[in-house]
Amino acid sequence: MSWSIRIATVAGIPVYLHITFVAFIGFILLSGWRTDEGLTASIGRVVFVLAIFGTVVLHEFGHALTARRFGIRTRDITLLPIGGLARLERMPEEPRQELWVALAGPAVNAALAIATFLAILLIAADVPLSQVLLERPEGIQGVARDFLLINVALALFNLIPAFPMDGGRALRALLATRFDYVRATEIAAALGQGLAMLFGFWGLFTNPMLVFIALFVWLGASAESSMVSLRSALAGVPVYRAMITEFHTLHAEDPLQRAADLVISGTQQNFPVIEDGQLIGVLTRDGLVKAVTEQGLTAPVREAMSTTFGVVDPREMLDRALARLQEAGSPVLPVLDGRRLVGLLTSENIGEFVMLRKASS
Ligand SMILES: [Zn+2]
Residue 150 C-alpha to ligand 1 middle, in angstroms? Predict the structure, then answer.
């Protein structure tokens, strides 16, 4: 995601901070600032913000590490003010697996809430529990109580049965054990949009923040629904019907100048690289730009091409190919019939194919 700062790599997964999240933390720190505040209070607030930040990271790792158990890798985790976003390479197809992956996030918050509750029992042994929870004492007990409540709130919010919340995915997974996947998604999305309407309407009279959340839920639900119906529209169509068959290829020893000329004079952005009639690499537009910046236009294509790339068979179905394309993280998939290069597949091309099919039906 652009406008993100990489802060760490944990368990092989890069963690990014979105610039809006940094601004959000700054806002929290500044808005509570008072000149008469003691140093301990200031430090306490910073520690508290960092604890919430850690909570969001752990929630996302709950999803990512559960997905890993089912053989699904996570491309990265980004922290946004509305929460975290773990980008899995694909969603599990088995409903039971999707259920576990979805519930793992809120389960992390529930576990943190229980641990904090036990800690409060220990550190506030002399104060009645109801007083800690209701009256919010000063000091460490009050901080622990806030942390507990935030984790309970995060668990409950994420369990709202509407896309794009975790609860929406869990609901779809449950429905998918009885209905087919597209139908299950439609029902879960409709429920999500119904809830969003109620939230939004209620928010109009109470809290404008609710209207904002409702809009976010509404958009998430409709995006998920159209993504799944797209996938099902592609399910019965073989790759060769939607692939690009008119394209340029490059030779490994061609100068980058040739690729640059082709990018400018035509619409092709990514090029297969051929040597002795065999596909040996792919030169993407990003790879080209990077190599030209570093080595100039006379460097050979060989230096700039990527030699690890996915391929697809022309008889494979488009829904699988689209998933492969997204998984590969590359803008193009070469289509190989045996060892012969017969076409290129890009997600824009699949999009155009779907659009024309809809228009002609
Ligand atoms: Zn989650």
Answer: 15
The per-residue pLDDT for range 135-172, each reduced to its tens digit, is: 776 777 777 888 888 899 889 988 988 777 889 889 98
267 and 177 housed in the same domain: no
CA of 298 to the centre of ligand 1 (A): 48
CA of 59 to the centre of ligand 1 (A): 6
Domain that holds residue 286: 239-360
Same domain assignment for residues 74 and 169? yes
Q: What is the pLDDT of residues 64-109, one digit of tens each?
A: 999 999 888 888 888 876 677 788 877 777 888 989 999 999 999 9
Helical (H) or strand (E) element with 304: helix 301-304
CATH of the domain at 332: 3.10.580.10
Give me the pLDDT at residue 62, please. Answer: 93
DSSP class of residue 86 equals: E
Classified as helix, coil or strand, 225 is: helix
Number of domains in the chain: 2
Residue 195 pLDDT > 70: yes
Q: What is the CA(165)–ligand 1 centre distance, in A? A: 7
CB burial of residue 103 (10 Å; 0-12, 13-18, 19+): buried
Measure the N-to-C terminal CA separation of the chain; round to a whole number of Å. Answer: 36
**Among candidate residues 211, 234, 257, the one where a domain is terminated:** 234
Distance in Å, CA 328 to ligand 1 centroid:
24
Dist. CA 262 → ligand 1 center (Å): 44
Same domain, 69 and 182: yes
Residue matched to tokens 């790792």:
61
pTM of the model: 0.65
